[in-house]
Amino acid sequence: MPIPDLSFHSSTFYGLDVLEQMDFKPLYDKSIGIFTNKTAVNQKGSHILDLLKKHSKIDVKVIFTPQFGLFADQDKRFKMNNGEKYDPDHNARLVEVFGRNMKPPAWSVRDLDLIIIDIQDTGVRFSTYVATMTKILEVASEWSLPVIVLDRPNPLRGDRVDGPVVRSKFQSLEGYHIIPIRHGLTIGELAIMANEMGWIKDLKRANLTIIPMANWKRSHWLDNSEHPWIDPHPSIHSIKSNLSYSGFGLLEGTNLNDGRGTDRPYMRAGAPWMSGYHLADKLNNLNLPGVSISPVNYVPRMKQTDTSAPMYVNEQCSGVDINITNPNVFDPIATATSIIVLASQLYPREFKWAEFDRIDMLYGHSQLRVFSAQGKPANYLPPLWLKDVIKFNQFRQRFLIY
Q: Are 164 and 254 contained in the same domain?
């Protein structure tokens, strides 16, 4: 849809806010499915499901839930009926599209007129929300179902691209499309790119509509918005941890603890066999931009909300903390790859890669693992992915809405 002219207003309007301004009329007299999670709120913090239940002309039949579910307290909100979970407010079935069902099953879409997608992405390729959205577009194309994406910002600015583009042999749910780690696209722009490039299975295309934002600028960070901050991931609690996740998410491909199990997820790295003072000294010699690095000793703990135990739970770890001093120049991918390369070279006996070369899937290439083995310094890597960044930035221009 055309970007609405709301320049007379100083606020940023997300796709949900724009649809609300239209009184949700495009959804009237339709049976709809919604792919969403807790992040789908308007400026006032009201969730899309709560907004829609006020409209008797809108029939929410199915709620599709991504990785990590819909709400943290979803067991309190939802009920069971014949072994199936449902939302009593809408009498809508809940269908998880992650894990057992990688895409919506046929019975869940058969009676729908329309699918709505409203979810806040992290702006980082590791997130599985984009892969799930593409699976939904695939099913929608098979059933000739229109899809409406309510656009939301890229939280890490829309004018920054960084990291290697994933190679086709290393594609996975955490690297589903041929994009860099930090892609600088909104969820709507990613949907257009996947749809128009034939990245949906068998080159299919969905009947896709984007309801765009108004007054959003590509130079905006998500915390510039008047909208309330809602964690887009169980371990991302601020814009700084979202930014550091674009690099420290790579630590999941190693046997380093990435700060989960502490109050600094994705802003800490350590292990029981490491000297944080030694690593911090080596890292500070690299003069990494926009960040200060200090040694730390800590013990990761399991929390009630954790779905899996953090690395080295209840063990004394030594490592480093990062403090982002300037988000505009901080390079999380260069910082994280420096930590990984130094750890592998300083502690060759203790350091290990995760099973099945998972690091290659996360990084998108075997270069990081190979360079570490060859003893090359980490600062050899950014010039290599800079070529990817330049090419992708040119390629993405035709899909930009803003």
A: no
